[in-house]
Inverse folding.
């Protein structure tokens, strides 16, 4: 069946629409990840930046700027900024998670070492601030430095909340904000700010990014329990094995009877897992409809994202953003 | 003998002169290292920030602002910024160096874990940018984001240059800029910038910080080979054992005959060290006057720092900065 315009994923349609901008972003990224003195830096960065990431976050910035009628070129800087912050976060995440794979390839900390991942992440973070300074917008710097603090705070929170059965949905949501929503929201917001859009539109873009990011992360956590391993690029139950308390588990634990609670204490809190535990965990998630309830939260966030865009004018990019919100939850089986 | 005003170290006299400002900096640091959601953050930060560091870098910012007649309060923000960047760097350094001790206490990565050190460092780095944004000065953001990039680049360079006998003095100087001089120079420069000082004075302050930082780091590397273990807080020869190519070693290796070169290849490049190697290394450093030559470079940088201050007006703080440059090289035995 030939691929028609409408059958393509919203992400791909957006990439086609923004192709010239994305090419400029890639050129800028390549020039700024260079280092006069330390060739290790572009090696490590290229491994990640060129690995075929979807460039979703920089695309959100470009899309928001277009939607607000921006005619300048600083949205390219900001899109590269957002991608650098994201890449720096991934490099540090892989050290923190002791991961061996990312996007189906060995992680930088495995190919080089943890040291390189930490320091190259720091370099990209500094470079991202240089890119922002060039735009001359203190408001952009304010938004993205706040997002960076929320990201780091969320990661620390995830570290301490992990394996702790007392983790509430409210703590989980704060972790999700740090992991995903803060950068999504900042990415769309700065697109509006650089375009000089009215406050209602800037606020709308920030809300859209926030809700989209939350929905995106919840679906990710849901697919960890019910996804097709080929499609999600990791194994079903990884979060369970790593004892990460995501929304499905938090809901099932909240509804556990004494016997079930003992199971969660053993497998998550004490980490004494054995054969068959994942199947039993999945059965408990089904019994308490934890996956169904989680997917309802994801859908409601996607709906909130779409509603948020109301103050924005009609525009092909607006349709793509609306479709993107739908697509995020369509991944739920 | 009672301590007189002039017998006190220049650093202590500066701390006394700037006492009110330093108290304000400490209050600001404590309020900004808090985290609403993640109590781990202030725990880790307090361990380092309250550990009795000398606050040398923030004092340089305060001193520069005073010297340029600044009457506002943003120098407090900038001094806290500089301390946060420094603390973030230390947290990441300890992960990279796999250190167990810093300032005579166990490092954060040992007390908590590498993950916490990486993420809390990221948090402090983000917080430092928030503090800068509040000053409303894009130029300050430019200077400190450039310094942050140089710091990270220097650290990566040190990683790849370590154990590599081909490391030149020029590479070493670039590492020193990243490790120490870039933040010293930025710390003094932003003090002048926030005061609205004339360009010649801003440039002079930057040059002073640069030369002071280089001198400071070279003396540090020198004391690793000839210091009093009690005074330097580490053991003689640590850099040799860790196969770090600092200026004394680079000079001795450049002057090595074939037999000596084989010794350096075995001990530094291959890392096959045995009893007596440190003594032999020290003998080779003496034979080639590598320590004497290194101390001459340190003294010439200290002299450059003092000369740089010529365009600044007479002021008690200027005398303290001049004395500080002298004091840095007085530590050489």
């Amino acid at each position: 069946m030939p691929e028609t315009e409408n059958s393509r994923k919203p992400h791909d349609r957006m990439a086609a629409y923004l192709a010239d901008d994305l090419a400029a972003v890639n050129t800028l990224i390549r020039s700024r990840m260079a280092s006069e003195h330390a060739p290790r830096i572009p090696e490590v960065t290229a491994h990640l930046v060129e690995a075929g990431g979807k460039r979703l976050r920089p695309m959100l910035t470009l899309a928001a700027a277009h939607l607000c009628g921006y005619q300048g070129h600083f949205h390219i800087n900001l899109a590269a900024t957002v991608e650098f912050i994201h890449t720096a976060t991934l490099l540090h995440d892989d050290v923190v998670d002791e991961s061996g794979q990312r996007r189906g390839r060995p992680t930088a900390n495995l190919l080089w070492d943890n040291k390189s991942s930490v320091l190259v992440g720091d370099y990209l973070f500094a470079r991202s601030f240089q890119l922002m300074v060039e735009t001359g917008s203190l408001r952009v710097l304010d938004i993205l430095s706040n997002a960076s603090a929320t990201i780091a705070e969320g990661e620390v929170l995830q570290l301490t909340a992990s394996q702790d059965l007392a983790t509430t949905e409210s703590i989980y949501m704060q972790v999700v904000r740090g992991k995903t929503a803060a950068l999504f929201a900042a990415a769309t917001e700065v697109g509006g700010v650089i375009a000089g859009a009215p406050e209602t539109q800037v606020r709308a873009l920030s809300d859209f990014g926030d809700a989209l990011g939350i929905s995106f992360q919840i679906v990710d956590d849901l697919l960890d329990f019910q996804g097709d391993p080929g499609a999600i690029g990791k194994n079903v139950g990884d979060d369970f094995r790593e004892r990460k308390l995501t929304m499905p588990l938090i809901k099932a634990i909240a509804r556990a009877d004494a016997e079930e609670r003992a199971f969660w204490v053993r497998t998550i809190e004490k980490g004494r897992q054995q054969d068959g535990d994942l199947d039993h965990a999945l059965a408990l998630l089904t019994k308490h409809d934890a996956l169904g309830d989680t997917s309802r939260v994801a859908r409601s966030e996607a709906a909130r994202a779409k509603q948020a865009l109301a103050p924005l004018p009609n525009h092909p990019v607006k349709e793509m953003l609306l479709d993107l919100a739908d697509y995020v939850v369509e991944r739920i089986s």
Notes: Chain B touches chain A at residues 35-41, 92, 95-96, 114-116, 118-123, 125-127, 129-130, 132-133, 136, 138, 141-142, 145-146, 148-149, 151-157, 159-160, 171, 174 (CB under 8 Å). Chain B has one domain: 10-330. Chain B has a mean pLDDT of 90.
